[in-house]
């Protein structure tokens, strides 16, 4: 599903970041760990097509991201990749239901996939929160909506950046279990970057980035 | 979905945009009101001037003579002998002469002594009753009838000169109302019309013992229509130089008046344009600060797959929504003000405004505002175009 080889990236006036080969399929989720500053979030941005001026190759479903024009990359991201950000961002003027609908709209999601969203609302027990604005929700609640948003758009790859960093132990465990289960059920490849040691036991496939 | 997003964005924290909308409303409202007043004033003046090539009256201010004789505002310059008018009417260049005898009032409205030609000139039609035929019969303009609750068959008493001075009332001679005219946008809507003989008789009766029967008959002025353009070129000068009469070309006098008032209107127009410019600057600043606030949301939407074109469209439409609200409120403001002016008519008693259509000049103002609004979106668009998604999302 995903293969990233010889990836190198350098921010201006900083040390060059070099990454090992990264491979991930829909059967086995991948956890990427490492100390703060080792480039975990940067790697996730490269894999998600948010950073484009890197060296190396990122292949998703057989498509090399660097071969796509900016417009095609936007479309590809909308169709193939769901991103769960470290800080869950939502459009503040829309309620949660509208936020999910907006993601589905940008991802060209068909009617049957909006049914998936309805199932997820039920499964993640957030139906009573649908008409609330993002600012009215707790960190745990809003992270659940991030997961719904990433999955309901029918993505083939979900990239999660520190999805449990702002959650307590109980919520962190619940969120990660839900994420793993949903991705397995729907055949979605899942890559999580985190320095949260609570997650290491949950993943058999792990890569540790060195600074 | 995009429509909902734009609407929600506009309604989210609306206070930021309220100032811009108020400024747009004021700017558009004032400029639109000036355009409407200017347009309708010209339309009204031109309508009242139809078929009047020249006015003759007593010597004095030509503008005063035009205002008092045609528009029934200001006092007449004096009286002139009827025989002079009769002489003039026989001139080969003159097609028609309408005598005007003024000086009589019912309360604050003027009673004009004239002929049937005056009513024909304004295409006056009777709503109830009939046209006056004999002395001391009178027809009343629709507005005047409504103002004083006058009905056909009622008798009214006129007063000379100052309408509010009861001591000057001609209590022994009354007018019989024979007709009420249909509403119109001309000067006759606000006056009463009787025969010239009624005005002569009322004064003759008043002074019967003071003057002999051969007293020279007089009128206040006469409206003249020429048969040939040669009349305009030769007669006014000849009359002014060789007779005791004064001749004035109404269109020239009115244009002089409009030139003077135009200066004031132009100043007001520029003030309105300045307010619109401030509104544009204000909306530009509002959009920049909103963009700063929503930078993360824009980056998020880009990461969700929104194309730059969609985000540009959202930015532009939001600005245009504020601009459109301002324009609509401004247009409403000008129309409501105009309706109020029409209803009160305090300062300009014979001028009415009744037009709700959008004028060409207003369209120019509206399109210019929309154009400038679009121009002001260039910078926000440039910012969206330059946005580094990964950096914005990771730094926040």
Could you describe the 3D structure shown?
The complex is a heterodimer of chains A (211) and B (396). Chain A is of the alpha/beta class and 211 residues long. Chain A has a single domain (2-209), classed as 3-Layer(aba) Sandwich (Rossmann fold), CATH 3.40.50. Helices cover 36% and strands 21% of the residues of chain A. Chain A is built from 6 helices and 10 strands, in the order ββββαββαβαααβαββ. Chain A has helices at 40-47, 70-80, 96-106, 111-123, 139-152, 169-186; strands at 2-9, 17-18, 22-24, 30-34, 55-60, 63-64, 81-84, 157-161, 189-193, 205-209. In chain A, strands 1, 2, 3, 5 and 6 form a 5-stranded antiparallel sheet that branches. In chain A, strands 7-8-9-4-10 form a 5-stranded parallel sheet, with helices on both faces. In chain A, helix 5 runs parallel beside helix 6. The longest helix of chain A is centred in the last third of the chain and has 18 residues, at 169-186. Chain B has 396 residues and is of the alpha+beta class. Chain B has 2 domains: 2-45 and 261-395, no CATH class; 54-248, no CATH class. In chain B, 57% of the residues lie in helices and 17% in strands. Chain B is built from 14 helices and 12 strands. Chain B has helices at 2-11, 15-49, 62-70, 82-89, 116-121, 142-148, 196-206, 229-242, 250-293, 295-304, 308-344, 360-376, 378-386, 389-395; strands at residues 54-58, 80-81, 94-106, 109-114, 126-129, 137-140, 155-160, 169-181, 192-195, 218-219, 221-226, 245-248. Chain B has a 6-stranded mixed β-barrel with strand order 3-4-9-6-8-7. A two-stranded antiparallel sheet of chain B has the order 2-10. In chain B, helix 9 (250-293) crosses helix 10 and helix 10 crosses helix 14. Chain B is elongated. Classes of the chains: A alpha/beta (211), B alpha+beta (396). The A-B interface holds A 41-42, 45, 48, 50-51, 71, 74-75, 77-79, 83, 85-87, 89-94, 98, 101-103, 105-108, 149, 153 and B 1-2, 4-5, 8-9, 11-12, 294, 296-297, 299-308, 310, 389-390, 393-394, 396.
């Amino acid at each position: 599903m995903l293969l990233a080889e010889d990836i190198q990236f350098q921010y201006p006036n900083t040390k060059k970041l070099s990454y090992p080969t990264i491979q991930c399929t829909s059967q086995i989720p991948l956890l990427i760990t490492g100390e703060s500053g080792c480039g975990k979030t940067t790697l996730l941005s490269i894999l998600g097509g948010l950073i484009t001026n890197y060296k190396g190759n990122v292949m998703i479903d057989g498509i090399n991201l660097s071969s796509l024009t900016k417009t095609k990359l936007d479309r590809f991201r909308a169709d193939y990749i769901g991103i769960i950000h470290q800080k869950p961002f939502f459009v503040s003027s829309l309620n949660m239901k509208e936020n999910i609908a907006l993601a589905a709209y940008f991802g060209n999601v068909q009617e049957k996939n909006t049914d998936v969203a309805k199932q997820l609302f039920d499964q993640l027990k957030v139906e009573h929160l649908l008409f609330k604005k993002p600012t009215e929700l707790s960190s745990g609640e809003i992270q659940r909506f991030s997961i719904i948003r990433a999955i309901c758009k029918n993505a083939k790859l979900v990239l999660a950046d520190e999805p449990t960093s702002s959650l307590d132990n109980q919520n962190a465990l619940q969120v990660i279990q839900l994420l793993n289960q949903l991705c397995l059920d729907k055949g979605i490849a899942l890559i999580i970057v985190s320095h949260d040691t609570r997650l290491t036991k949950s993943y058999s496939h792990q890569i540790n980035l060195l600074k | 979905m995009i429509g909902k997003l734009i609407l929600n964005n506009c309604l989210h924290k609306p206070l930021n945009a309220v100032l811009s909308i108020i400024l747009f409303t004021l700017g558009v409202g004032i400029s639109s009101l000036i355009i409407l007043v200017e347009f309708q004033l010209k339309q009204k003046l031109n309508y009242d001037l139809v078929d009047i090539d020249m006015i003759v009256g007593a010597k004095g201010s030509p503008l005063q003579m035009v205002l008092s004789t045609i528009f029934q505002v200001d006092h007449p310059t004096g009286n002139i002998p009827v025989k002079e008018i009769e002489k003039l009417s026989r001139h080969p260049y003159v097609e028609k002469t309408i005598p005007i005898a003024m000086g009589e009032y019912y309360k604050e409205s003027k009673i004009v002594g004239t002929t049937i030609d005056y009513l024909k000139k304004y295409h006056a039609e009777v709503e109830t009753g009939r046209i006056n035929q004999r002395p001391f019969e009178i027809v009343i303009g629709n507005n005047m009838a409504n103002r004083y609750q006058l009905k056909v068959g009622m008798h009214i008493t006129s007063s000379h000169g100052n309408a509010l001075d009861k001591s000057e009332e001609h209590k022994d001679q009354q007018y019989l109302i024979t007709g009420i005219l249909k509403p119109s946008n001309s000067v006759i809507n606000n006056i009463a019309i009787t025969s010239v003989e009624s005005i002569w008789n009322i004064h003759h009766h008043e002074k019967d013992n003071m003057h002999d029967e051969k007293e020279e008959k007089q009128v206040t002025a006469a409206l003249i229509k020429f048969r040939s353009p040669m009349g305009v070129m030769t007669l006014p000068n000849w009359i002014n130089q060789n007779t005791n009469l004064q001749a004035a070309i109404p269109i020239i006098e009115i244009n002089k008046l409009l030139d003077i008032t135009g200066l004031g209107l132009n100043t007001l127009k520029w003030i309105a344009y300045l307010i619109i410019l401030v509104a544009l600057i204000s909306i530009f600043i509002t959009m920049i600060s909103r963009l700063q606030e929503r930078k993360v949301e824009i980056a998020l939407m880009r990461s969700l797959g929104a194309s730059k074109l969609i985000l540009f469209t959202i930015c532009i439409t939001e600005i245009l929504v504020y601009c459109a609200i301002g324009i609509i409120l401004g247009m409403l403001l000008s129309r409501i003000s105009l309706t109020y002016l029409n209803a009160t008519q305090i300062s300009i008693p014979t001028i009415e405004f009744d037009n709700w259509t959008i004028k060409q000049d207003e369209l120019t103002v509206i399109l210019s505002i929309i154009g400038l609004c679009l121009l002001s979106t260039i910078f926000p668009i440039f910012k969206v175009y330059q946005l580094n998604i990964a950096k914005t999302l990771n730094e926040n």
